[in-house]
Amino acid sequence: MRSPSPPPLAEDARVARSREALRAALLEMLEREPLERIAIRDLARRAGVGHATFYRHYPTKEALLDDIAADEIRRLVSLTLPVLDRADSRAACAALTRYVAGRWQLWRVLLTGGAAAALKEELLAISRRVAAERPRPARDLPEDLAVALAVAGIVELLAWWLRQEDPWPAEQVADLLDRAVVGPAARGRAPPRGEAAVGP
Amino acid sequence: MRSPSPPPLAEDARVARSREALRAALLEMLEREPLERIAIRDLARRAGVGHATFYRHYPTKEALLDDIAADEIRRLVSLTLPVLDRADSRAACAALTRYVAGRWQLWRVLLTGGAAAALKEELLAISRRVAAERPRPARDLPEDLAVALAVAGIVELLAWWLRQEDPWPAEQVADLLDRAVVGPAARGRAPPRGEAAVGP
Amino acid sequence: MRSPSPPPLAEDARVARSREALRAALLEMLEREPLERIAIRDLARRAGVGHATFYRHYPTKEALLDDIAADEIRRLVSLTLPVLDRADSRAACAALTRYVAGRWQLWRVLLTGGAAAALKEELLAISRRVAAERPRPARDLPEDLAVALAVAGIVELLAWWLRQEDPWPAEQVADLLDRAVVGPAARGRAPPRGEAAVGP
Amino acid sequence: MRSPSPPPLAEDARVARSREALRAALLEMLEREPLERIAIRDLARRAGVGHATFYRHYPTKEALLDDIAADEIRRLVSLTLPVLDRADSRAACAALTRYVAGRWQLWRVLLTGGAAAALKEELLAISRRVAAERPRPARDLPEDLAVALAVAGIVELLAWWLRQEDPWPAEQVADLLDRAVVGPAARGRAPPRGEAAVGP
DNA sequence: CTCTAATCGAGACGGTACGTCGCGTCTTACG
DNA sequence: CGTAAGACGCGACGTACCGTCTCGATTAGAG
């Protein structure tokens, strides 16, 4: 025999429905306005949900954003950090850009919409946490600075990419990323002048 | 977006006193909490000023921050952009870090306190505006991306520097800046591996 | 306004158990707090019953109170009204007080606990209804006023009695009732001065 | 010379205006619905006042009712209690009914509208408090019971009077009051049977 | 050294959004 | 079918700040 509550963590269908509606509504609204100007009641109304139901699931708007983004961010971070360590950073960069390309719509909203600032903070915070637990490879730059520069650069570059109407291919962006952001952050060196131009 | 009375010439002594009190109070408070969590009434109370007096001088908290930071930011930007263009970027970087070192306390609050996010936004916005009016030098990277990466990198690096308890000398930071941020952003190239380490 | 299922005949044993638990819980709670501050969920919890179960049996807290008190009230009213009409009002009063004395605990809660106000309303309403259907004896006072005064007086006197730590005997209370409440309400006359004092 | 704040307690005109608007609105609404079903926001809206302004002046609806009724109640009580003590209770009763007649509209709302229950409670509470501080005249009935009966009776009688479409004259009501309520409560005696009928 | 007008503090006000509470209904799964 | 468990839509609650406003009192700074 098993426990009396039959599926111990199998969520009530209504719960899943409410959360999904809230997640979708937030993503919609973030395309139009910044997170801090979204009223929770409006969000709930758009989700077709009583506003108290919002609070039954999330304590704050940020928590809802987290519920949407946390996994994504963790995935991204797990692709981001190795970029600093691996010998072939170029391949790691390509893995990163391909991942984002595969989740284009979501990441476009997250990094160019009204939650961009919050997302950058979150990304940086998670990266720092993850980085602190890694073996710290010898590096020219202080570790924390390297992480900060890499994450900031990656975020700026991805945001720039996701804002494009006619986006560059992931491979080319990976090149950019490797040469203009990751390489310098990893090794603290500027490239020598006079190499061939990048760009479409 | 400074004072509502167009030319603040021939200022009443009371006006100057009120504004100064408000500026000082904001800087104090930013050391402890983020801009968005500072209530205007608390700010005014700490400044020893009626809360209506705040509104007589500034429409928003952001405007007050601007009044504090606008000149500083413009100065910083005027030192930042050339960094991307000048042949000896190393010298331009040194000018930048020396300037910040000379305003250490103020910039520490601005870039590491509760206004950091707002400041980054403002810096980036002003940089973009200024950059758009410059002659656009041939560059490997798209101009807007180069500016975004440079500004983000500079801000991160300065914030890292200003957070240090026992700060590096300006010259060494200028080195870092040149090699890990400015160079790559200007030329889109990572440094080759294997050069000498940086550090104190 | 009792149970939603029209005739509570052939009651399921579970139904009876639930209702009894709810009745007992309400009486307990009324000793401590006013009816309007008792949350239905708390009531159900104390009764060891799901809160939805409450609604299956009663539409409101008041309906539950009714289920507890309706018969009692009807009995009391059937003893109350004659008091105004019968020649020997003293005997009728004695019947009334003896009845209450026999149900002391229940009436103590009802008239001195958190339902006192509701109970008074209910008693008055039922009395009015019953009084309207009676033959209206010639009386000095307008009928509706006489009923109102008599009921209010009876209720106040009973409440006073039931609050006593060391209660008077029913016979003495019947005396009081007859002389200070029923007589005047029935005949609209104050007693002459100078008679013997009442009291234990 | 006098104090710097010219009128030390002369209230801000806006304050007086807001309170008056709230008082009027509450009285209006009490003619239609019970106090507990009046939402503070609706009350404020009807008063033409922001709902927060309500809270700036009163903590609860009951407090507003108090602000309206407290003086009136105190006045009424100061006329009510002597009724039990004075030799010519008839004259005291007349003073009482004349006072109510002079404030007809207000008392009609208070005792027959949605605040009737609250008002009765308040009247009884204040009466008890005042009575406790009086010299306790020798009486047939226990003091607390006498007060309870007198107040309950007065309230019922006034409510009955105020509900009349074509109200009896104050003098006749004073007669009723004296003979059916005050006399019995004061002396604990019913009037002898067989006297002349009262009525219009 | 006045006089007058700008500036001030104090704080009431109409609003908007907040997060909480309790309601009565509805859904799900058991026994 | 009655039940426990509990999510849900609803709507009032009381709070916190917002930005606007009026009110006298003060205090420059021009005459």
N to C succession of SSEs of chain A: HHHHHHHHHH
Helix content of chain A: 55-70%
Secondary structure tally, helices of chain A = 10
Q: What is the residue-mean pLDDT of chain A, rounded to a whole number? A: 85
Count of all domains of chain A: 2
First-last Cα distance of chain A: 64 Å
Q: For the report, how would you describe the main beta sheet of chain A?
A: none
Q: How many β strands of chain A by DSSP?
A: 0
Largest interface by Cβ-Cβ < 8 Å: A-B, 39 and 40 residues
Strand content of chain A: under 5%
Rg of chain A, alpha carbons: 20 Å
State the secondary-structure class of chain A.
mainly alpha
Q: What is the assembly state of the chains in this entry?
A: homotetramer
Detailed description of the structure:
4 copies of one chain form a homotetramer. Chain A has 200 residues and is an all-alpha fold. In chain A, α2 packs across α3, α4 (61-80) crosses α8 and α9 (143-163) runs antiparallel to α10 (170-187). Chain A has 2 domains: 13-58, Homeodomain-like (Arc Repressor Mutant, subunit A, Orthogonal Bundle); 63-187. The termini of chain A are far apart. The radius of gyration of chain A is 20 Å and the shape is elongated. Helix content of chain A is 68%, strand content 0%. The interface between A and B is large, with 39 and 40 residues. The structure holds a DNA duplex (31 and 31 nucleotides).
